[in-house]
Amino acid sequence: MSDYRRWYVPGGTYFFTVVTFARRRFLTADAFRPLLREAITEVRRERPFEIVSWVLLPEHLHTVWTLPQGDEAYSIRWTQIKERFTKAYLAAGGVEGVRTRSRRRHRERAVWARRFWEHTVADEEDLAACVDYVHWNPVKHGLVSRVRDWPWSTFHRFVELGYYEPDWGRSDSFPGNDEPEWGE
Hints:
Strand content: 15-25%
Mean pLDDT: 90
CATH class: Alpha Beta
Low-confidence stretches: none
CATH topology: Alpha-Beta Plaits
Strand order of the largest sheet: 2-3-1-4
Radius of gyration: 16 Å
CATH superfamily: Transposase IS200-like
């Protein structure tokens, strides 16, 4: 058993990486993207949080959230999002991976990796690095050659708001992006 302890900061800002079971590639499929959006919308209605930045890739996602003042319950939110998506995904014909004995014993489906990776954002510089990493990720994984060409990202909103130029990310905009602490 791991000694890993999550760092909970009430009202904090967090970077997350959430991965599908066995890195199965279905999150960007037309049939399933809306189900994830709906699960997130439902959870946000019950347990509000701000989505600072977001990118959806076929087998994982990265996002930066800010929780309400005094609230540190991001783990509950991820559990609820995963549960709601899984139920809708399977009902819509999605196929899960092979369930291990442990998953069956714990009544877990084989849609998501069990855990998620989180990083508590320390300051504005750290936040900017996390947001840049989120937006650069489709290029990092070779899915597109330009950040602006990836449709499932808040990058486009950041361009509209003037935080990025439309051609941001033409070169390696996030040096050191292969370091393991980024959750991949």
